[in-house]
Amino acid sequence: MKIAFHAPLKSPDHPVPSGDRQMARMLIEALRLAGHDVGVVSQLRSFLRETSHSAFSAVRDESQREIDRIRRLWRSEGPPDMWFCYHPYYKAPDLIGPSLSTEFSIPYVTAESSYSYRRNIGAWKLAQDEVAAGARRAAVNVCFTQRDRHGLDEAIPGARTALLAPFIDVSPFRDLRRTKQGETRLLAVAMMRAGDKMDSFRMLARSLALVADLPWKLTVIGDGPARAEVLETFAAFPSERLEWLGEKAPQAVPALLAAGDLYIWPGCGEAYGLAYLEAQAAGLPVVAQRTAGVPEVVRDGETGCLTTPGNTEAFAAAVRQLLVDEASRKQMAERARQFVFEQRSLPAAAARLSGIFAEFVDCAK
């Protein structure tokens, strides 16, 4: 099929890296691997950090101009066979796809659509009503976690949903060689910004203080506007125990992960976290919290340890266990790599998408 791809939160061509941009790019690759012709149909970003009726109205006007542009293009060159929208939610609704899909009689599909009852107030409700309408209209709403699927099913009865587990491109990790460097190396990859990320950095610092009697070195990959606050959070640790690498190009990350022994990131409010899959693909077991979508990407007791949310002592105890038990750490490392390569790869995602389309989209044409 010829697929028009749109990501209203952040285009896959956006210059600023993030998990959303990475997932959008992975979805495009999986769709292409499944045999589809995929193109980004619009660069319009409908994201509103804060909103008002006037701000929402302005985004709607921009969206109408995009609808007019795309309509002219499709009337001249012909429409695609499907509109595929990634991650519409109350801060970034798809204000283009549902209208055009109806007008040109093509299937409308969403991935990672979400609904929050807490946002049914003020101008947020205007945006969320658009998300709900799109989910109801969709031939299928592809969910990445059972948590999100249950939430959508509960909020929008009758919406058609299917599950696609989070995945990554494993090819950069296929020929990695472990590069052990003396002391046990702990790894974390994260943007440095306020909110959930900063909460995770604080919890990480508190947890590591509880295992300061053991030999380890922490390497952090990532940067961002909260860098100074992150460094201050770890100010009590000796400098030789910390390594701040800053932002690294995606192609450099696999080798850096392969130099580690254990991936530790609390994951406060993490939707699921593709970095957990990348770490496991590099052969690192994971310590994280059993929160949000993290259990969808880490197998507790098999590929890592998931601890009670908010329990710093439990998190530190899991880190301690894998620091001192090298045999268990190596067993988990092998299972982690096998798990990602066999179940969370691009080919696995492409096959699953083909199955979803066969079940929901083909019959909707």
Would you kindly provide a brief summary of this structure?
The protein is of the alpha/beta class and 365 residues long.
How would you characterize this protein structure?
- By secondary structure, the protein is α/β, with parallel strands linked by helices.
- The chain folds into two domains: 2-167 and 345-364, Glycogen Phosphorylase B (Rossmann fold); 171-343, Glycogen Phosphorylase B (Rossmann fold), CATH 3.40.50.
- The protein contains twelve helices and twelve strands.
- The strands form two sheets. Strands 2-1-3-4-5-6 form a six-stranded parallel β-sheet, with helices on both faces.
- β10 (262-264), α9 (274-281) and β11 form a beta-alpha-beta unit.
- α1 (19-33) crosses α12 (346-361) and α9 packs across α11 (326-343).
- The longest helix is centred in the N-terminal third of the chain and has 25 residues, at 53-77.
- The radius of gyration is 21 Å and the shape is globular.
- The protein starts with a strand and ends with a helix.
- The mean pLDDT is 93.
Helices and strands in order:
Layout: E1 2-6, H1 19-33, E2 37-40, H2 53-77, E3 82-86, H3 97-104, E4 108-111, H4 122-137, E5 140-143, H5 146-155, E6 161-163, E7 185-189, H6 196-209, E8 217-221, H7 227-233, E9 242-246, H8 253-258, E10 262-264, H9 274-281, E11 286-289, E12 304-307, H10 312-324, H11 326-343, H12 346-361
Helix pairs in contact: 1-12, 6-10, 9-11
Keywords: Plasmid, Transferase
Protein name: Glycosyl transferase group 1
Organism: Sinorhizobium medicae (strain WSM419)
